[in-house]
Structure formats: C-alpha cells, structure tokens
Amino acid sequence: MSPLLCTYSYFAATSIAAMASAPLLLCVLLISTYCLVALGGRHERGFVVVPTSSSSVTEQAACSFVSQVASDPNRASVPLAHRHGPCAPASSSSSGGAKPSLAERLRHDRARRRHILSKATGRTTVTLSDSDAAGVSIPTSLGAAVDSLQYVVTLGFGTPAVEQTVLIDTGSDLSWVQCAPCNSTSCYPQKDPLFDPTASSSYAPVPCDTGACRDLADGGYGAGCTNSTTAKSLCQYGIQYGNLDTTVGVYSTETLTLKPGVAIKNFSFGCGLSQQGKFDRFDGLLGLGGAPESLVSQTAATYGGAFSYCLPPGNGTTGFLALGAPGSNNTAGFVFTPLHSSPEGPTFYVVTLTSISVAGKELDIPPAAFRQGMIIDSGTVVTGLPETAYSALRKAFRSAMSAYPLLPPNEDQDLDTCYNFTGLSNVTVPTVSLTFDGGATIDLDVPNGILLEDCLAFVGDGSDDTGIIGNVNQRTFEVLYDSGRGRVGFRPGAC
C-alpha cells in the first residue's frame, strides 16, 4: 500500500517575484489541508505546495491594521508596512520612479551586513572619502548605522503633531527626520512636508555644553558643535551609513506622538539639516537598537525596554510595531530564547542558533559553527549564515528542490540558489526551521519567509563568525525583544 502524502496547499498566496520589486496585491491567505496518495512509495513530509511567481492570480490588498496587541492597555502599537508596498503611506511607497531592482537592493543589503558585522565584532569600520563627503564634515568614528531599510511606520512629531513616515531599524539607535530649512542641495526630496521645528511649541535644540551632548559623542553619534565660538552653539549629530550615505543636523528634543493620546515628551532625536547619498522618499529613521539614544531606551521607564513588531508576509499587507511586552499571563503562542548583547556595544540584539532543519530533517551542522551568535535585524533583507551552516543548508535545499531548474549564479547579487519556475503554476517547497538556544523552534513562513524572488533568502558570510537573521525569515512572526527579561520571543501568524 502506498503511504499517504500530506501537504498544505496555499491558495491565492503571494507572487514571490513581486515581493521585493513591485507592489504586491495580497492580504488574504487561504489555507487548506489535504492528503494525496503518494505514487513514488516515499513518505513525503515537510513540503508545502505554493503558487509560483508566474501565477496569474489577481489579488486584492487589504491594508487595515489588525493586531492582537492593539487592545493591550500596557502597550502602544502603530501600523507597519513594507516601504514599497501599497499599504505604505504615499510618502514612502511613491518614489516618483522605478522601484530598486533586486540586484540593487542586495548590493545595499551586502553593505549593511558588512557594516553591522564590522561594528558588532570590532573590525574596521567604513570611512568617508573626499568625493563621498560632498562637503559634509563627519568624524570617521561615526560609522554607527547602516543602509536604508524595508519597513515604515507613521508617527507624529511636534506640537501640533505633524505626521512623519520613518523607517524602523533595530541596527541603529539615534532617530532623525529631515527638518526645514532644507533645500534641494542639502536634503533629498521627500513627498511629505519637511518637519519645521519653528512651528512646534515643544521643540528644543540641545545646547552644546551639556551632558546630553557629551553623552551623544560618547555613543558615537556626536559631530561637535554648530559654532564653537559662541555661547549659544548647539549640539550637532552625525551618522554615516554602511553605503556612505550621511545625515548631519542638530541634536534636539521634541514630543513624539505614537497614536492619539499616547505621546513621549522630550524625545531626543536628530533634526537633519544635511543629508547626502541615495535616500528614498521617506522622512527619516526610527532607531530601535539597545543603546541610550534609541526610542526603546528612552521609553524604558514606561515600557520596560521591551518592544515587538510583525513584518507582513508581502508588500500588500500591514503589520505592527508595539512598545512594551505582554503580561506574563499573556504570552500564549510565543517561544523564547535568551537574549545576549554584542560585546562591542548595546545596539545589537544577539541570539544563539543551535540547528537548522530542512523538510523536517535536522542538518548535520557542528555546534561550533554557531558559537559567535546571530544578530536579529529588521533592516537586513537576507539572512547571512556562518559558512559551514550555509553550505549544509544550501545542499539540503537544492536536493529537496532537485525537480526544478537551478539558475546559474548572478554576479550582481549574492543569492546563489535561484530557480526557473517558468510555465509552472505551483511548486513544492521544503519547510525550513530554525532552532535556538533553549529549544525555541520557528517554522519559517512558506514561501514568504524562505524565498525572495524565487531564490533561497540566505547567503554565506565567508566564515564561521557572527551571522545576521534578516527580515525575510522574520515575516509573519511577532518578534518580541524583551530586554528586561533577557529574552527574545517569536509568535507565528501574528500578521
């Protein structure tokens, strides 16, 4: 008798190719379980049937904000969307031109990963060349942040509150927005009006000769004073990103409104007056790292230094960003693993990966491959694994996908396991699971948490050093950073 083959069929699911390069028109995922008689005599488990990126299914976007955390009175949550998707505010989704190609995004992603690893491991950081500086003077020690991100939230700055659409970033700490009186030579174009500090009754620049300004310099974001010869000189911040983009301006405080009735007074941020580089049309950045300059640290007295987010499975859906952790009696559905800090500083969130499984089978990876830990990052796209672990994953994934044509490597992008699904309406994709210290196991969403434009969304970083868990793997999970309890939680199916 032939054994039963049990799989999950995902109807009206996402177009994989559209996931990163074009607006995606999907919000509803219909799942049905069925069992078929296996013809090959082999018991198949750990595989999922999904539509290919060539599927002609037309989908409807449903961008309403639905979150279990929204009703929790101890937590503050805001909608979160993909920066290029239809659910993003017009300021970020409409860039006035073509969306960046996958190759371009991956080049930026590579720069981001290298920059994060250089800071986390204490290796040499990127410095500005004369041609890249474009007249902006920034200390070379400012290599504190990274490349532009993928997900945005809309917050209110000032009194009265003015909406600003900002990228979320767990890989940096200092938040900033572009401020008037920027012009086309000193700031990049954004669709929203510039934040005008003179129109806000709660705005205050930070004087240069203050403890707050000295602390900023100690944290690696200080850029001196606006005019050191006057008693009224102001504290200047500066950030250099992994791809040499820069932002410089006045370190300031302001009222930050998360949603009506929930405001943070005296929020420290950068009022950007000179930005140089290839920025999109977003208004700024929201730093969610662990250092004192971040939103998380500044609100620790209220929200306990905890926050979570859910990155939606595709461009056409909405997730959330929430400050605060659920109560101890309200963590059903989460699995937890210990949280560690980077030895080079508090910005990054580090966890220990212990094993990877493909199609339900644990890979033969020596524990030493994961000894340096994995940084969880909201802005890195693809996951960078230690080389030993990636080699094992690639071999197992290719074996499980051997029925489909493997494309030759593309020199313009890092991804080396890409498939040609032309002419196919559905393909069978193996599941991939990650297991962390303490036994916490997460089954990555299929296909959105595994494939990026028909490519395996993992790369090898060339050594068995620190790795980075990118945002593709995190999709559909509520990822809870609970520093107060020293743990990271994962709750599947949260958005």
TrEMBL record:
Annotated GO biological process: proteolysis
Keyword Transmembrane among record annotations: yes
Keyword Transmembrane: yes
Pfam families: TAXi_C, TAXi_N
Annotated transmembrane regions: 12-37
Listed InterPro entries: Aspartic_peptidase_A1, Aspartic_peptidase_AS, PEPTIDASE_A1, Peptidase_aspartic_dom_sf, TAXi_C, TAXi_N
GO function term, MF aspect, one: aspartic-type endopeptidase activity
Domain Peptidase A1: 151-491
Domain of life: Eukaryota
PROSITE patterns found in the cross-reference section: ASP_PROTEASE (PS00141), PEPTIDASE_A1 (PS51767)
Residues the record marks as active site: D169, D377
Comp. bias (Low complexity): 86-101
Region (Disordered) location: 81-105
SUPFAM superfamilies: Acid proteases
Keywords: Aspartyl protease, Disulfide bond, Hydrolase, Membrane, Protease, Signal, Transmembrane, Transmembrane helix
The family this protein is said to belong to: Belongs to the peptidase A1 family.
Protein name: Peptidase A1 domain-containing protein
